[in-house]
Amino acid sequence: MKPQLSRRLFMGMTGVAALGATSAALKPAMAVAQSGSSSAPKYGPAPGVAKLNANENPYGPSKAALTAMTEASAMGAYYVGDSVSRLKSMIGERFGLPPSQVSLSSGSSGVLTYFTLAKAKEGKILGTDLFWDTTTRAALRQGGELVRTAPTGDLGVDLDALYAAITPEVSMVQICNPNNPTGMALEPDKLRDFCIKASKKCTVLVDEAYNEITDDPAANTMVPLIRDGHDVVVARTFSKIYGLAGMRVGYLLASEENTAKTANYSLGDYALNQAGVAAAVASFDDTAFLTFSKNRILEARQLIVDAATENGLRVAPSQTSFVYVDLGSLDAEAFRAAMAEQNVLIRGIYQDYTGWSRVSCGRLENVQQYAAAMPRALEAIGA
């Protein structure tokens, strides 16, 4: 008589067999991935391509961040937990705010979008003609309204025009400082005075994505105004100087009231990932890496400025990891296409500023590739 297997034992043996079959099936797949075949996933730009169109810092992640990401990824089966509290505490301690006034999201685009959605329910959003307005689009799709003011003659932010445009219907002014796409920074004292004055009428949101790259980050930040009780909100990101654009971590600093408004639209910790938060924690106080990154960015920026000047072009004065190049009467979209023909990726037209072209400060060899391609591209579009 054959021995009878219990249902539990049978199911257990079946599971083991299935696991063995799965492991066997995985082996050839892993072998293919490790062999570097064309079917393996590719990350980042292809070899020979100078990717200078998204203001990434190609020198990141730092060694400390890579180590932390590897360790955290081993716990990738679990949602983020204590690491979020630790990062909020680190950020709050640096800026003199309690962790409860720090909101995290997938890049600063998350918190910028959440807060703009909240404020768009209260009234109109006011901004300049040229600023990184991507984070207003969700609010606009929900029926919100964005009012724009013209820049100064040199494409700077006209603070007087912005203040004059604040009506009782405006709930928030959004300023990008330094500005994207121009790269220009406002004079700290003038911006501070504007924020104090304007915040008596509405909330002022300052996007400081590139603050750490400016000549004087401490002077350029508006975070102290939050501590002083003004209706000011500041957004920061780990995507730029920290070289973690692909890991998606950003944060918002605000009053308890404004933090609560952000939370009403946020996905909370579920919008974060273990590796990204771990990388942010490891990078936050890595001064050696931050100094190295900033030096490389400034070196690349000067190479871009020199290339533009040598080709008879002028640039907007940048305090960021990109340069806004004035092509004069030439078309920026045509220039973008001509550069792409030489494997150099840059940005095209913003709004209706057809003669201005933005290029990022990537690796030095990629910026040199941009400089070398510039004469041919300009000739191709009729320079």
Instruction: Please state the average pLDDT score.
Output: 91
In oligomeric terms, what are we looking at? single chain
Alpha-beta content class: alpha/beta
Q: How many structural domains in the coordinates?
A: 2
CATH class term of the largest domain: Alpha Beta
Number of helices: 14
CATH architecture of the largest domain: 3-Layer(aba) Sandwich
Fold and architecture overview:
The model is unreliable at 1-37 (pLDDT under 50). The protein has helices at residues 7-35, 63-73, 82-95, 108-120, 137-141, 159-164, 188-198, 217-220, 223-227, 256-263, 274-284, 287-310, 332-340, 364-380; strands spanning 50-51, 102-105, 124-128, 146-149, 170-176, 203-207, 232-237, 250-253, 314-315, 322-326, 344-345, 356-360. The chain has 383 residues and is an alpha/beta fold. The chain folds into 2 domains: 64-284, Aspartate Aminotransferase, domain 2 (3-Layer(aba) Sandwich), CATH 3.40.640.10; 288-380, Aspartate Aminotransferase, domain 1. The relative contact order is 0.15. The chain is globular. The strands form 3 sheets. Strands 2-8-7-6-5-3-4 form a 7-stranded mixed sheet, sandwiched between helices.
Keywords:
seven-stranded mixed sheet; globular; disordered N terminus; single chain; Aspartate Aminotransferase, domain 2; alpha/beta; Aspartate Aminotransferase, domain 1; three-stranded antiparallel sheet; 14 helices; 2 domains; 13% strand; 12 strands; 383 residues
